Amino acid sequence: MEDRLASGGAVELHRGQAHYLRSVLRLDRDAAVAGFNTADGEWLCRIAEIGKNRGRLTVERQLRSPEPGPDLWLLFAPIKRARLDWLVEKATELGISALLPVWTARTQSERLNLERLRAHAIEAAEQSERLSVPKLRSPETLGRVLGAWPPERHLVVCDETGAGEPIGDAAARLLATPLALLVGPEGGFDQTELDALSKLSFVTRIGLGPRVLRAETAAVAALAVFQAIAGDWRRARTR
Length: 239
Known about the structure:
The chain is of the alpha/beta class. It folds into two domains: 10-64, CATH 2.40.240.20; 72-234, Alpha/beta knot (3-Layer(aba) Sandwich), CATH 3.40.1280. It is 31% helix and 26% strand. It contains seven helices and twelve strands. The strands form two sheets. Strands 5, 6, 7, 8, 9, 10, 11 and 12 form an eight-stranded parallel sheet that branches. α2 runs parallel beside α3, α2 packs parallel to α7 and α5 packs across α7. The longest helix is centred in the last third of the chain and has 16 residues, at 215-230. It starts with 9 loop residues before the first strand and ends in a 9-residue tail after the last helix.
């Protein structure tokens, strides 16, 4: 939720939220719901008003304090719609902090509906009970992204050619470094792109085993490995 959450406060629902509570969950006045945001954590709320296009919650008490999440970005070349929706959903569930779409030489998808992807990220955050929604950046070309890259963040490139360092070794070696993962398009990276990436000091190319993976499978597999080795999977649920 964008509004601040505090005991005795009120939160105005936008059209989509009101529709979901009223028409999907079929909740009415006085029903208890959980509201959350990154700054304030999770709070017990009750429906004060609910209509077709609007609603209002009253805030009662805090259920969970704010929790710092993993600082891990995912850069991805847009793929076909259904697979891209799935990728955004699963990356959010795995705790990604930022989603950065990039246009590469072999990217086939020409359109990107950021509002649809943002809605999937919000829904996945709610379902997985995380207290933040990953930031979704506007798409840019790979060259432009690399030209403005923050030097303190290491970029790990999923290399489908098999020439990269084993993913487990790279994950263990880079644990103390802010990280981002880059997954290419359905046709893989162009050789000129791989050559250019290899020349950058902040880039590590990694391999994902002996099988050729779809782009969305490679992204989720890499995220799972890095999160497990980084210790995210040793954290217990606090709710």
